[in-house]
Amino acid sequence: MLNVAEDRLDLSRIVDPAQLRASLDAIAAKHGGASTKARQEVLAEVKRVNAAGRETARTMLFDDGGGTACATRISHLQDMITTALYDYASTHVYRVDRPSKSEHLTVTAVGGYGRGTLAPGSDIDLLFVLPYKNTPWTEQIVEWILYILWDMGLKVGHATRNIDECIRLSRSDMTIRTAILEARFICGERTLFAELGTRFDTEVVEGSGPEFIAAKLAERDERHRKAGDTRYLVEPNVKEGKGGLRDLNTLFWIAKYFYHIRNTEELVGLGVLSRREFNLFLKAEDFLWAVRCHMHFLTGKAEERLSFDIQRDIASGLGYQDHPGLSAVERFMKHYFLVAKDVGDLTRIFCAGLEDQQAKQAPGLTGVISRFANRPRKIPGTLDFLEDKGRITLADADVFKRDPVNIIRLFHLADIRELEFHPDALKRVTRSLKMINAEVRENEEANRLFLSILTSKRQPAIILRRMNEAGLLGRFIPEFGKIVSMMQFNMYHHYTVDEHLIRTVSVLSGIDKGEETREHPLASKIMPGIEEREALYVAVFLHDIAKGRPEDHSIAGARVARKLCPRLGLSPKQTELVAWLIEDHLTMSMVSQTRDLNDRKTITDFAEKVRTLERLKMLLVLSVSDIRAVGPGVWNGWKGQLLRTLYYETELMLSGGFSEVSRKQRTEHARAALSEALADWTEKERKAYVKLHYEPYLLAVALEEQVRHAEFIREADRAKKQLATMVRTNAFHAITEITLLSPDHPRLLSIVTGACAAAGANIADAQVFTTSDGRALDTILINRELPDDEDELRRGASIGRMIEDVLAGRAHIPEVIARKTRGKRKQRPFIVKPQVTISNTLSNKFTLIEIECLDRPGLLSEVASVLSDLSLDIASAHITTFGEKVVDTFYVRDLVGQKITNDNRKLNIVARLKAVLGKEADELRDNMPPGMIAPHGSARRERKASA
């Protein structure tokens, strides 16, 4: 596709074709060309040459960093090997001294190999072209070459066709047409290849440009859709993903087909690309090829997904270093996404030139290109912009020069008139970014228009994304420019920071328009009553604006907001509100997921931080939008329920409605309500049953649940079951409940969660209460996996049976887990430094122990076991997973019900926990007692001692 200078390639270091040919001739002379011994030695020689050439290419890649050069070198190596094999087969194995016209053959490269580039692990795509039909000679030659290539361990895609077949099939099959378009002569009869090219141009290409363009663009769009339709996935596909090599290939295919060019540089002479844009094309292609070649060399296979497991090694191979605020791998991935963005820019610019050319050459065409023939219409109220078949475009080439604010105005008009963008308009935006200077940034009209776009009632996220893809957002808001294409090296965030911010605005817009009432009922209910709507949108858009800095991004982000908000036209009061929301944008989600919401101190502390109902409402909507925009599968109904509980409890306190009735009075009221609800029970049964439960259960569990538990316990008692489980699903929360009744046990939490691990269940939460007759009533909440309720109920019942089997001694957890994980050792590319924090100020009754570390199977059981060994009673535990990292909070007291205040004891707790957190899961598993391995999840345990 692109020419790389011969002197830079230094192909002689890869393979010496004369020496290879001489070696094979010597083998033929020694053993007879067609002998089995000769074939074995030929295979051994080409294997040796291939391995040596690829190793040299790998060394040169590390030395000069040239990705395109590396791909060209490997392609050249394959050319020389294929040519040598063809020469050997036709000279020494199946020699024909006077071949007839039908005994001619040309070997051509197609696909990526046809472009003269080949990744280390890629398939070798060959097309054997015949003049008429297959003959015994051509069959033998093709078969001999293919079997040698296969025996070399290469993956070879091949086809054998005559010229007529090539032409006929390329007319009906767009994939074959593309392959012929890229066909490149390797060896054999050159006149055959020339005839194929001539006939292909006249009989297939001529007059079919619009058809081919439409097919290739549709193919690209479908490929993007399957890949998630974003170039900002943190584990991108370098070959097939949006902004990857295939997008550059598509541009070249269309250019070669429509403009009849052989080299991308010719587009500069045609005026389609500028010299700067062509150089950008070269740099993007070279970088993507370098990444792809490194990936193949590192993994030893055709790996196209730039996964977390290999990103760190690739970054090291490409020479990236750590910088303050960004690790080497994060700097590498930011570069990758900037290149992917450049590919998007080039696509828009190329399509704009293509449309102009199409409109000039074929104004009467129908189909995808036909809309270009229609004359643009004026847009009311402006002389600078036109509407062209539902797309906004510029009235003339000087629109931005006359008034640079028109660059912002273009997007504002597209928003209010709900127009798509003409590629030419976006091309001119990209080429005019230097006009966005300090004067434009401070322009009152420009900022008013931008704020209108951001807070639009239509589709603000779509317009913001177009502005970002054109490079405008980063120019107009330089702070945003710093986080464009920035990724965070963790499993929690699925997108780059800029894409996450735009997606957060999208979620907020959906809530604002009432489109999320089912998914987010509370946020949708309170959104219309939020007075400072503009401030909320600005806070949502800026909440991660300071990511990648050495300091806390929330604090630095608040400082950015105080500088930027006045420029956008916000009042001092609104500015401070935005700054507060950004500084505390993680508070509500963290409190809801890591704190005991039944502890009044939790609600009191949170209410003191929020202070007003308006800020509480805004923080809830921001928290929902933020979590939803992190990535697929991060949000679930259970997190929504935790946020709603925190909101309602805080709302009561802020409005003065928080109950001042004593816990004793509320407990007696709850006990009376439960007795009344059991109206169909005898008086004796009711009195006996309500005495079973302690205060924490009666105050924390809803009456409806208490009645359900009562029936469950009565049935178990009548059946004289020591162990019993029941299951129900909750589709809205995406949770399945497993309720367990069993004799109490000091390590019950570890054993139950270990059983869940053995059954493959991921715990979202758990409530464990102790009854006065020495039993435990546990409700384990696991994440739902199956869409059908009946299937999920069967899965829950199976997990319940596993819990019963473990408690009854019929199953041994380590053995079950070993069977499930055998052969599935997972690489761990992430590093999370273990941290342990002890606090006595966050609860009136309990000491809080918070741990932060890398997630692993069995962590909850291990930590619970250590705390038990330290004679600590776990009153409740809240375990939250952020990708590969967990933040666990345990509410504990000593065995006499007191907080942990002794400094030496605190130091001992920290040391013991850090020793466990620092170990690898595999090492721990070998020495763990039965029942001690558990999945991560959240657990709450109320002990009799806390009653």
From TrEMBL:
Q: How is its activity regulated?
A: Uridylyltransferase (UTase) activity is inhibited by glutamine, while glutamine activates uridylyl-removing (UR) activity.
Q: Which residues form the HD domain?
A: 497-619
Swiss-Prot/TrEMBL GO biological process terms: regulation of nitrogen utilization
Q: Does the keyword Nucleotidyltransferase apply?
A: yes
Q: Which InterPro entries match?
A: ACT-like_dom_sf, ACT_dom, HD/PDEase_dom, HD_domain, NT_sf, PII_UdlTrfase/GS_AdlTrfase, Polymerase_NTP_transf_dom, UTase/UR
Catalytic reaction(s) noted? [protein-PII]-L-tyrosine + UTP = [protein-PII]-uridylyl-L-tyrosine + diphosphate; [protein-PII]-uridylyl-L-tyrosine + H2O = [protein-PII]-L-tyrosine + UMP + H(+)
Family from the record: Belongs to the GlnD family.
Free-text comment about domains: Has four distinct domains: an N-terminal nucleotidyltransferase (NT) domain responsible for UTase activity, a central HD domain that encodes UR activity, and two C-terminal ACT domains that seem to have a role in glutamine sensing.
Q: What is this protein called?
A: Bifunctional uridylyltransferase/uridylyl-removing enzyme
Organism, scientific name: Hoeflea olei
